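Entry:
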Amino acid sequence: MNDVVLTVDGLEIVLDPSGIGIDHEVSLVIRQGEVLGLVGESASGKTTAATALLRHQRRGAKIAGGRIRIDGTDIFGVSDAELRELRGGLISYVPQDASAALNPALRIGTQLTEILEAHSFGSSAAERRKRLAEMMAEVLLPSDRAFLRRYPHQLSGGQQQRVAVAMAFGCRPKVIVLDEPTTALDVTTQAHVLDTIRDLTKSYGVAALYVTHDLAVVANLADRIAVMYAGRVIETGSKRDIFRQALHPYTRKLLAAIPDLSGERALHGIPGWAPRPGQRPEGCAFVPRCDWAIDRCREEFPPSEGPSEEHQTRCWRYREVGAQPMGGDARQSGRDGTTGAADQPVVDVRQLSAFYQRKECLHDIFMALHERRCLALVGESGSGKTTLARCIAGLHPFKIEGEITFRGHQLARDSRGRPRPVRQAIQYVFQSPYSSLNPRKTVRQILAQPLRIFFDLDAGETDARMAHALEQVALDTSLLRRYPDELSGGERQRVAIARALAAEPTVLICDEVTSSLDVSVQAAIIELLAQLQREGGLSMLFVTHNLALVRSIAQEVAVMSEGRIVEFGLVDTVLENPQADYTRKLLADTPTI
């Protein structure tokens, strides 16, 4: 235990002033040079526990108990002035959204230099300039004057995230907290950022806490894993222990929800949702969703037990769960019934070129979306996927050349020039629910809007439609009274999907809709969309950078690069025998277990 850098013991976090518990009895240990993956669904308490390591909590929450020691320092025993020295020096933080974390009014070089100056790194300006060049080299970014004079908006998403990583590692801290830093990145950029994090962690012997809902990323990065549910750590173990013989039913269900690039098994979502703070029972909170639950589970929360000191879980029946083989209920991908001959195209795109100002960004695109089928658009950021999707939806604000038809009728470029039935038939779900949901409206008002525009319903029928839409995306009707800022990121995205489904569309355009969702909700949404496709005649254009998801939902795939479709075909054919070098590169960069 001499190499232990971070110890968290019995951490308790509550809402203030009500005292309702958010996180309970959280205990973690991270050693030098080790990456601990902290995984769980949205609202499980991961980020709340992670930010507590910096003695920080969001408004309305406070740390009520426990102890956190970093390299021998009790962070609850230091003054505010000392805490400012610790943050960025002894422990640092990489946020989920680097574009929001970087100051848009300051140049990159200025922001990086500020970190070094604030923590008195180096004895002179020359030493800090030397360290700045090292920081940029470590994250594989140029350190020339022209690049350092750029503003954050002049960088790509991957470059912004690497700058955030450089800032976190700048003063060579002992501990680094990474809060889902690759969630919104395409697979190629994600692979580069993860390689950078892995190399820097090992090189400097940093103890890293990697918060994520993507277990495929954890499988390729972490040394050990801690699984959280409803504010508690319910299983910890080495990567091998967790992926080969998980002991908690929740962990096993999470693993079953991971997209499978090989297509050998189907995605299985977890029915229901985790209880929120204030609604958690005395016993195990997973009981309503657990296939192993007994009466004792409802009455008493289990202690920490396991086959070894390194592999511990909190389940009364962990021995029986562990005795069952992993993945025993796996089956082939559930895209049956939709892989036969295609009907006539619902949406047909011919010789489409699109422009941003005077620059052409889409070049001579041919594409067809057929009845009750899903076409996946994949590629790196900037490849033109979203631009093509927005052209079809009538949301592209600049010049378009070529032809887009819906059921044989040519569509106007702008959605406002299209008839109401066409606008109802083609619905769009945006990537970021933070910007697509009106923060001044409740969930009820958000869902009521498409119902009011497209249907003539009385109050009772409207309420029933809203409840059904929420049920489809695994949300409770109690959320109708809440505003978007009272929901987790995953819950917000599910509300955005429910809003689109409420309009009863024929074509659903999903623009990276699962990038902010945890794997269990992602699997449930994919299952839902596949069911709607089979039973409701829904056609989908599914924009994603997650190639593993394509196996689970799409029948056809179009691979885009630099505004062109470089490969098109049936999913199984393209993923098993890719012809384009670009497709092979995407597949190689996709994280798998």
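The CA atoms of residues 559 and 567 lie 5 Å apart.
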